Amino acid sequence: MQQSNLHLDRADLELLLAIRQHGSLAGAAGVAGVVPSVITKRLAALEARLGLKLFQRTTRRVVATAEGEALCTRALGLLAGFEAMEAQLQERQQEPVGRIRLAATFGFGRAWLGPALAEFQARHPQVEIQLQLTEQLPDLAVEGFDGAVWLWAVRGPRASEWTGRRLARNQRVLAAAPHYLRLRGMPASVEELAAHECLVVRENEGFDVWRLQRERDRAEVRVRVGGPLSSNSGELVRDWCLAGRGIMLRSLWDIAGALASGELVRVLPGYAMVDADIHWVAPHTASTPRRIRLLVDFLAERFRGEPWKLRPAARRG
């Protein structure tokens, strides 16, 4: 085989990644806006040129071979290099240009980050923003994210892989509806929470143990809680709490408006969970594009004053 036959271009790499991502030739064709036969012919031509079988076809799915998987892994790095080079060239322009791909949790993403991103994009119309809402923080570098707005700082093994910046302080506080407190009474101590109907968010292991910090001396107190209602949806738990079904532990960004209006009342106001600050999290890179730097600075300024304390947050549907 002559060396010239081994030529690969950017379109070839994008084709391979599209097929692997969608698991079908039809899916890749849909993204490219062509009929599946076009993708079939392009893949066949590429495999013939390389002399390698890159994908195995089954009745349900197209799966990369070992050679195809290795090539796709290499393609990710090469395409990232293309994008970085393009970003550096675009840096010379005064107005930021390019795509920003972000991840965030559903609740904060919908209530606060989404409107902020819309305002930032209106200020910089040549920037494209893609926001993915998720309850599990993705592997940012592997999945091609520029960063995430998340409710914890970089810790543990990830600290060497990612960089972080706090955008705003936030606490999780105990709250209940006045109707519930009239029926069951206000707990006088953390230990009394165990005898109350507590609304638990089942987000991870240890969901039924609330770790609270006493504000006057920062001492940590743990209490095991429970009740007849629990969910993996924090928004649903909030709605149950508003309906008077129990006590919950919820971020101030979500319920500050309800506390200000009297719909909810803080329970044991001398205690809070303090591990819920709003952070920017991103993979380490040799250089950060200007559009990313501008966005992070914008979000830090937007959230620094904890705007959820200043006005009621809009209710989500």
Percentage of residues in DSSP E strands? 15-25%
Figure out the total of helices.
9
- Report the principal-axis shape: elongated
Order of strands in the sheet with the most strands? 4-3-5-15-6
For the biggest sheet, the summary is:
5 strands, mixed
Structural class: alpha/beta
Instruction: Give the total of beta strands.
Output: 15
How many angstroms does the end-to-end distance come to?
61 Å
Report low-confidence residues grouped into runs of 5 or more.
312-317
Would you summarize the structure shown here?
The chain is of the alpha/beta class and 317 residues long. 38% of the residues lie in helices and 21% in strands.
Describe the structure.
The protein has 317 residues and is an alpha/beta fold. Strands 4-3-5-15-6 form a five-stranded mixed sheet, covered by helices on one side. A five-stranded mixed sheet has the order 11-8-12-7-13. The longest helix is centred in the N-terminal third of the chain and has 25 residues, at 66-90. It contains nine helices and 15 strands. Helix 2 crosses helix 3 (36-50). Mean pLDDT is 87; it is low at 312-317. The chain has helices at 10-22, 25-32, 36-50, 66-90, 106-123, 178-184, 234-242, 252-261, 290-303; strands at residues 55-57, 62-64, 98-104, 127-133, 147-150, 162-168, 172-176, 198-201, 209-214, 220-224, 230-231, 247-251, 265-266, 271-272, 278-283.
